[in-house]
């Protein structure tokens, strides 16, 4: 009899622990900043690959707050394609664990449609403003787009993050989920190929006999680091040890300037990802620009749904 | 004493039921084709909105096989942007429940990179081929792109589906998750606004006093249904009752021709979605075309990672 009671009690206790674990994973909405353990390597297999994040997500996954936090900095600006681009990128990020999305608008006021979109995703996020300085806005020729935004993102990271990794992810690019699994464990600066760059079709570190041996990029222009903005990720601690690191307002030299400002840091220090740079996990997709939409004939359509639609359009 | 045993037993039974429910939802990978109950309406709130599909997915959601199946037909063809576009769309679909992705290549052989991508997503899918007939391929001027593919998708649906809804989703468009929640309950043909179409910036049914009263589209051209391919969804049963419905090989008139082939069906029969067509839940985003990548200098790079990267590039 006592045996039965004992067994029952054990089973109840065990079940209680299970449901408790479930409750914990349910409530892990807060953002935990934890140091990755030394030697902690990207884990392959069922927990992290894309197929495990399908419709039937198992409940008893590793709590995501054990993963190093991933900060994704996305510069954006108002244009007809903006909401579409952010929507699409948000879907990718919604499949990534322990990610914090820093969206920085090149604007003086926050776009409420962007704020609503961010809220709807359920992602942990920060919505910031960083207008391009007048000085550059008035200049003729190519403009240093997204520099204010990215530097504002870096400032936020210096003020709020202690560990983890950050990545500059433009809203029109395309990211394989595997990319986030890999960059999360960056110790200093990791690099990897970016597809759809220049006439070569790809920009990548060159790897010979398993070691870094230069850069392959259609536009070198004397750059020490001829890479694309989407081609590298940086450890937060590495940045914090370099208080002067910043992106310069110099069109075409933003990446190079920023990476050089991370000194001491040499091309030989790069961590090579994407199976020694043999896979493409990110593409520099560019969206065709649309002209602002034509005005609505209010005399004709004043009491229709089109009035509300027009308020959304740029 | 017996009371304690009884309580213990009850608790165990209850816990067993809970974990059983969990196991069922775990194993729902198979595709269940169930009739939606009559009067089954889109349910709003926590189960279906985007924020509930965040990183902390609750375990005890409604089993997805109770939802009407959603068939997404995506025509695609080989080009530098193809893998990126399909990757991005797959992330959106990975957040949709009980979805079946029918990817149809305009090609004579299946691209193994597309097959690998499909497998990696974990989505229920079908990978089909439907090359454009020579007759149209040789013709000068605009070509009926994607028509073979979509008709092949329709053929698959006639052969394999009994209930649910299908939707033509091009790989470069952008879809809000809310769109899939809404179209899933289409009884005949549902329609909704599509952003980034023509100079008007949007194509949409016009709604006046809560009722359909025409179409707003920058290119009417005598079409009975001046709508975009991404602007409507059709119930499978409705299609099955129209054995002759097909898309014509007529550039610019694909949508109109297909919708007219669904007769008996009049514009007044349209089900209006997206809050009476006041919201934009899908955008006709177009990706900037890239030239095929330049050849690799094999004398210079023959023993590097670039050889493997070049095999992926178009």
From TrEMBL, chains A, B:
Its protein name is: Galactosylgalactosylxylosylprotein 3-beta-glucuronosyltransferase
Q: What does the UniProt keyword field contain?
A: Glycoprotein, Golgi apparatus, Manganese, Membrane, Metal-binding, Signal-anchor, Transferase, Transmembrane, Transmembrane helix
Q: Which cofactor does it need?
A: Mn(2+)
Question: For this UniProt entry, what is the primary localization, expressed as one broad class?
Answer: Golgi
Which leading EC class covers this enzyme? transferase
Report which reactions are catalysed by this protein: 3-O-(beta-D-galactosyl-(1->3)-beta-D-galactosyl-(1->4)-beta-D-xylosyl)-L-seryl-[protein] + UDP-alpha-D-glucuronate = 3-O-(beta-D-GlcA-(1->3)-beta-D-Gal-(1->3)-beta-D-Gal-(1->4)-beta-D-Xyl)-L-seryl-[protein] + UDP + H(+)
Going by the UniProt annotation, this protein carries glycans at 276
Q: What is its EC number?
A: 2.4.1.135
Q: Name one GO molecular function term.
A: galactosylgalactosylxylosylprotein 3-beta-glucuronosyltransferase activity
Which family does the UniProt entry place this protein in? Belongs to the glycosyltransferase 43 family.
- UniProt xrefs under CDD domains: GlcAT-I
Q: Where in the cell is it found?
A: Golgi apparatus membrane
Specify the pathway.
Answer: Protein modification; protein glycosylation
Of the GO CC terms on this record, one is: Golgi membrane
Give any single GO term for biological process: chondroitin sulfate proteoglycan biosynthetic process
List the catalytic residues.
255 (proton donor/acceptor)
Highest classification ranks of the organism: Eukaryota, Metazoa, Ecdysozoa, Arthropoda, Hexapoda
């Amino acid at each position: 009899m006592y045996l039965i009671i004992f067994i029952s009690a054990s089973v109840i206790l065990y079940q209680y622990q299970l449901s408790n674990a479930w409750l914990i994973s349910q409530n892990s909405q807060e953002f935990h900043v934890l140091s990755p353990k030394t030697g902690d390597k990207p884990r392959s297999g069922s927990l992290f690959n894309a197929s495990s994040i399908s419709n039937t997500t198992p409940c008893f996954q590793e709590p995501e707050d054990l993963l190093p936090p991933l900060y994704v900095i996305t510069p954006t600006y108002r244009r007809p394609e903006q909401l579409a681009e952010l929507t699409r990128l948000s879907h990718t990020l919604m499949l990534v664990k322990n990610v914090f999305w820093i969206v920085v608008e090149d604007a003086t006021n926050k776009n409420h449609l962007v704020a609503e979109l961010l809220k709807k995703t359920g992602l942990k996020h920060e919505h910031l403003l960083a207008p391009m300085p007048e000085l550059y806005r008035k200049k003729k020729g190519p403009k240093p787009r997204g520099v204010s935004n990215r530097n504002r993102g870096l400032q936020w990271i210096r003020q709020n993050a202690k560990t983890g990794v950050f990545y500059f992810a433009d809203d029109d690019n395309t990211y394989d989920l595997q990319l986030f699994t890999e960059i999360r464990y960056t110790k200093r600066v990791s690099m990897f190929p970016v597809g759809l760059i220049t006439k070569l079709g790809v920009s990548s570190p060159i790897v010979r006999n398993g070691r870094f041996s230069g850069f392959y990029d259609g536009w070198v222009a004397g750059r020490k680091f001829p890479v694309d903005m989407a081609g590298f990720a940086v450890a937060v601690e590495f940045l914090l040890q370099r208080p002067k690191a910043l992106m310069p307002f110099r069109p075409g030299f933003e990446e190079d300037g920023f990476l050089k400002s991370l000194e001491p840091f040499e091309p030989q220090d790069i961590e090579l990802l994407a199976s020694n740079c043999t896979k493409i996990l990110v593409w520099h997709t560019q969206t065709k620009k649309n002209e602002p939409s034509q005005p609505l004939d209010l005399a004709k359509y004043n009491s229709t749904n089109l009035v509300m639609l027009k308020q959304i359009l740029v």
